[in-house]
Design goal:
The structure is a homodimer.
Chain A (H helix, E strand, L loop, with lengths): L16 H20 L3 E2 L5 E3 H5 L4 H4 L4 E3 L6 E4 L4 H11 L7 E5 L2 E3 L11 E10 L4 H17 L7 E7 H11 L6 H9 L6 H9 L5 H11 L2 E3 L4 H8 L7 H13 L5 E4 L12 E7 L8 E5 L3 H4 L7 E7 H10 L16 E5 L3 H16 L4 E3 L7 H10 L4 E5 L7 E6 L4 E6 H6 L8
Helix pairs in contact in A: 1-5, 5-11
């Protein structure tokens, strides 16, 4: 057996208890926000038929697939690199039978066979929320607000993260107003999308190929980097770029909806947000740390043609994806993961200790199981020692709330109950605890 | 795009909301039982290096692997068919640094490339609990009791499921007492393991090859089908087989430990339980429906050499695995999944309705978000209708506890709050609800 078989495959993770506690902490925020916002949870297979991805997805994803064929089998499969094709396939399978709007969320594992780097792994977890079957800015904002709600529950604020929002229709109208010809619109959008990845001279070179006047080129350059709080008047932004505020009407609808919900302070207009994938058709957004130094925490938007593209009915839709890796980094950087997960582990309600003697050793397993059957988180020691001081130390290390000690008083049917947070101790009747075990549960 | 790309791959499942509610219901029982019993949750990658499985696992697993290699890559991988190799690898990676005992649980997805049939799929979810670093029947029973606790929480009783238990050492001593030669012990165990799969004449043929006297052969046949409640004296069972009760000493330790914990009524001695995999060394058990008609719900036992086999330190261990597919079938057969999952979906706390008018439509999004921010599960309608009767019907269909109606009284700052379970209605001040939204949460 090669030595590397003792390691997790490159770009994947072993989740030891405190690591998994971090993942569960993030997932709990995702799940509770989703449910509170009226989304129903769904899931699909971990792998799909390869052609679900190759036939319609962008090249960037196809190149990153883990694909395989079973020895002797006829079908090619791929580990899912994103959830949307599965979602579209599931909607398609039910045809028109699903009540509209379909509001679904999922927290699947996903796989990308690219080079692992900070914020990007080969296996990761991604929260997906989607609303299908309805159109309009209020639904786009419903998706964004649910993403914000999850971040709020993890302790993040608008001072940590901003949702940068744009709108494909507004961008197209802006480009037309700047004089970009219809056949150059796609090039111009790609350029906006890549503005942070291109060096200034390369950006200038490509912008030059758009066929704009020197004045329009200067205004395109302003637009590419123009951001302002969504709370501010869009007319200001339009004036800066030198276009009519009317071109931003679609974005103004998003603004009005966000204002009604009360999430304006989380949001920034960023005309340069386009989203790489070809399938977005309306509102587009990315969640970014305020510093802008890391990868996006989340991204999404409206993709009205997508469900149909994957074989489903004609159905407008809007969605968001948020991965666990960048988010965990952001929380860690802001000290929002105390002890790196250790204190996120569930605290035992009771740590049961035998102080020795046949009676105590005989009674302990029954007491432990009775408390567990009552829904208490109960730990005990596997050590041979009956030194109560040492065992209380173990109870403290386990972060137990109470210690129950089976000692000499057991001959009279009595046990000691020690509140490890308060440092107080009382005596209780074992029979009473066995009869009403939930009285040992601290609030 | 081929038509089958619109379907989930054979042997995998799409989880629509009520399907996933069933899975989450089962997982919640597994997780809460694990935590209450003092296990910490872990997880590993969905795929591992292929050789982690091929080098040491039994052939039966190797033949069922989904394996793959990244185009242009150097490594062979396989989707995990079981969790134990990952567990052993993770323990090995931390060497002696982990506090003993290691009590871990996991609920990973697993993959077997075999032909799908009732109770057996190509992708399924399996609960694993393991205790490593300690020996003795009390720890074996700790594992079994945790499995029972999860079943109890799902509504199952000892009249539904029995844990059939045996012990490798007891079986070996029984076989020796029956006159099975040391070099035939493995054959005899394999025969016991396959007793339900072989036809009677084939069983007799193979038993004949064990080199036993006619009398011993008859007693071997009795042993192969000998079961009795674990609560009964093992001496009775030994007498039936015609051996000394001493040969069952190891099983008697399990009996004593189970009696102390209080789970005897759940347990049956079944000498014919061996467990196919070669790696078990002591206590072995399977959870079966009382009818015995279905596959085992769970299986496990002590495998003291396994962690070392996968590159870890010398470490005794005992574990259990329980899959979701057979368990869900058992629950469904017993009507323990009401409405096949639909009523397991989370109930909305509040359904907010606008009765129409600019003020109501304007106030609704803010109220909804405020309630959600307070942790309430809030739904609303995407329909254009402002017919309160129809919308109350939708609230009922959504199984909401309360409906909040923004109607004409809103001009005076008032809203109607309707308790949909009790059928009562009251008027409240919107400002008060916005200030203390949690008052709308029913217990």
């Amino acid at each position: 057996m090669g030595t590397h078989s003792f390691q997790a495959p490159k770009g994947t993770r072993d989740f030891y208890p405190s690591d998994l506690a971090v993942r569960r902490h993030i997932e709990a925020a995702w799940r509770s926000a989703s449910i509170d916002c009226g989304f129903d949870e769904v899931d699909g297979p971990t792998f799909e038929h390869l052609e679900l991805y190759t036939a319609k997805s962008g090249e960037s994803i196809v190149n990153e697939l883990f694909s395989f064929r079973r020895a002797g089998g006829e079908n090619d499969y791929a580990l899912r690199p994103e959830f949307t094709p599965t979602l579209a396939r599931m909607i398609a399978a039910r045809g028109g039978a699903l009540p509209v709007p379909v509001k679904w969320f999922a927290i699947p594992s996903m796989f990308r066979a690219e080079r692992p780097q900070r914020g990007r792994l080969r296996e990761f977890y991604q929260w997906n929320i989607d609303i299908a079957g309805v159109e309009g800015a209020p639904h786009d904002v419903d998706v964004i607000a649910c993403g914000i709600l999850a971040l709020e529950r993890l302790g993040l604020t608008p001072r940590d993260v901003q949702v940068r929002v744009s709108h494909r229709v507004a961008i197209a109208r802006m480009l037309a107003a700047l004089g970009v010809a219809a056949d150059k619109t796609a090039d111009a959008m790609t350029l906006l999308d890549r503005r942070d990845k291109l060096k200034p001279d390369e950006f200038a070179l490509r912008a030059g190929a758009l066929g704009l006047s020197a004045d329009a080129l200067a205004r395109f350059d302003v637009a590419a980097r123009a951001t302002q709080p969504l709370a501010a008047a869009l007319a200001d932004l339009a004036a800066k770029i030198g276009i009519s505020a009317d071109e931003f009407a679609a974005l103004d609808d998003v603004r009005a909806a966000a204002a009604r919900v009360g999430i304006l302070e989380w949001m920034t207009v960023d005309v340069g947000i386009v989203r790489g994938l070809a399938y977005y058709t309306g509102t587009v957004f990315e969640f970014h740390e305020i510093s802008g130094a890391e990868r996006a925490l989340a991204g999404g938007g409206r993709y009205d043609g997508l469900v149909e593209l994957f074989g489903g009915p004609k159905m407008p839709a809007c969605g968001l994806g948020m991965g666990d890796v960048v988010l965990a980094n952001a929380l860690r950087d802001r000290k929002l993961l105390p002890d790196d997960g250790a204190t996120l582990l569930p605290r035992p309600d009771v740590f049961v200790i035998s102080a020795g003697g046949d009676l105590a050793d005989a009674e302990l397993p029954k007491l432990v199981m009775t408390l567990r059957r009552a829904g208490l988180h109960v730990r005990t020691s596997a050590k041979a020692t009956r030194n109560v001081g040492k065992l209380l130390g173990d109870a403290g290390k386990a972060r137990a709330r109470l210690a129950v000690i089976l000692g000499a008083e057991l001959a009279d049917g009595q046990i000691a109950v020690k509140d490890l947070d308060a440092g107080t101790q009382r005596v209780a009747a074992l029979a009473e605890i066995l009869a009403t075990p939930r009285t040992l549960r601290l609030p």
